[in-house]
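job 3f2a | input accepted
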Amino acid sequence: MNMEQLTEKSLGAFCREVAGDLRHLSISADAIESLASDLASESLPHPAWDHPAFPVTAGPTLDVVVWLGNALNFCYWVPEGESMWSISIAGQREVDAFALFGALNAAFEQGHDLGDAHVLRSDAISAMFASGRGYLPLVEDRIRILRDIGDILEHQFDGRLENAVEAAGKDAPGMASFLAATFPSFNDVRRMNGIEIPLYKRAQLAAGMLHAARKARGAEGLCKIEQLTVYADYMLPVALRSLGIMQFSKELEDRVNARRLLDADSREETEIRVATVAACDQLLEVTREKGGEIDALKLDFWLWRRGFDCESDLPHHRTLTTDY
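job 3f2a | predicted structure (324 res):
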């Protein structure tokens, strides 16, 4: 199942339906109602992605940086005692996603055409990761993902990533489904009670980010952007917990607060991700009913930033995965 196959209901509504059988956490309708009242009177911005890590102008380089960046946009947290992987951008040390997008952008500036299949399979990729300082989890997985993308481009898109971007079209949920169907690492699916749930965190983020970045630079965005959900990652649950919307069971709370690993595809990890999408879909619906002009991109960006602000008090769950 993919997003385009959910014709009778949106992915958000589908997750709300599945979330009717949560065992390890709960969603507070009262907290959603309270926050919706506040958000209805606010004007939340779309992210412009105008950080120096990104190309300044719209065009093929921006498209490639956004797509490849999201192919690699997962798991930046480090074990106790390690420092996060970082690079220097515009005189500042950057970590997390901005460091990764900045490394890709810098590779272009240094003459490496990352839209070319041969470059994605070359030693330039290993050198790009080696240029940073600190610990980056799952480096070999990231290198493998780029090489796999290179192989697929070679066989299906005449060796060029921009051909794949064009083939994906201008439909945001269609682009997410295209990424998941074409490049296996984007196929982020969880199963609960025997039901397959296409969360597509990185695939949706690639579409949403491309839309927002293009629009911010005066170029045409994507259509059906309102059909994307928030992105089921590490930081949104932190924000939702801080707001009282997501409430963990005592056992799950103790485990997450102690920074003990949750296995990918475990019931606990799946519930956290499904409940994130479900709660936010309900929050969007109630906020709109109260007159607020809001979509998943705006809400996700607002919650994502709040999650970082709260993470020192409420640790995020830890799962070693390439999905987010």
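job 3f2a | The radius of gyration is 19 Å.
job 3f2a | closed
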